Amino acid sequence: MAEPQKQSHYPSPARTQEIVSRTLSIFVDNEPGVLARVIGLFAGRGYNIDSLTVTEVEHEKHLSRITVITSGTPAVLQQIKHQLERLVPVHRVRDLTEEGDAIERELALIKVVGKGEKRIEALRIAEIFRARVVDTSTEHFVFEMTGKPSKIETFLNLMIELGLAEVSRTGIAAIGRGPGGH
């Protein structure tokens, strides 16, 4: 007679899966409540959204694009995509990260407060990063900057020492490379 297998009282070593970031482009009907349903899917299942932008892309067809940056294990991300595809107002879900390098841009407004050398240095760095001055006084600047999120992050890190006071960011707009449409 075979001995029954013993159960261990210690948890088995957890398999660690790599957390990856994905840019999802979701084409939906442009009607009331659609954004709430899409975002509700994320919230209801405990998925995090790192960035979210929405705009109408085809007025005649009442079609909007929701661009979501989210992260998780590959299995969780696959599950998110499948659940999004099952929502009635969703026409198509594209994983721009999986399809290849997407073009991603973001707009940021950055307020820096300072005088003297710090003010001069902030202007010098802004010129290098091609940030435009959109508001100024003798004690502050508001810079407008567009670019890859990593570029904006680098600029913000440099501005911390120079008097970074406030930041407003739009979220990431993304589009796939090449001649194909949505």
Number of beta strands: 8
Mean pLDDT rating: 89
CATH architecture of the largest domain: 2-Layer Sandwich
Rounded radius of gyration (Å): 22 Å
The main sheet orders its strands as: 2-3-1-4
Secondary-structure class: alpha+beta
**Weakly predicted, low-confidence segments:** none
Helix content: 25-40%
Main beta sheet: 4 strands, antiparallel
**What is the level 1 CATH name of the largest domain?**
Alpha Beta
- Please state the overall shape, judged from the principal axes of the Cα atoms: elongated
The amount of beta strand, in percent, is 35-45%
* Oligomeric nature of the chains: single chain
Query: DSSP helix count?
Result: 5
Total discrete domains: 2
Q: What is the rounded distance between the termini?
A: 63 Å
What is the structure about, briefly put?
29% of the residues lie in helices and 40% in strands. It is an alpha+beta fold and 182 residues long.
Q: How would you explain this protein's 3D organization?
A:
- The protein starts with 19 loop residues before the first strand and ends in a 7-residue tail after the last strand.
- The protein is 29% helix and 40% strand.
- The protein folds into two domains: 20-99, ACT domain (Alpha-Beta Plaits, 2-Layer Sandwich); 103-175, Alpha-Beta Plaits, CATH 3.30.70.1150.
- By secondary structure, the chain is α+β, with helices and mostly antiparallel strands.
- The strands form two sheets. It has a four-stranded antiparallel beta sheet with strand order 2-3-1-4. Strands 6-7-5-8 form a four-stranded antiparallel beta sheet, with helices on one face.
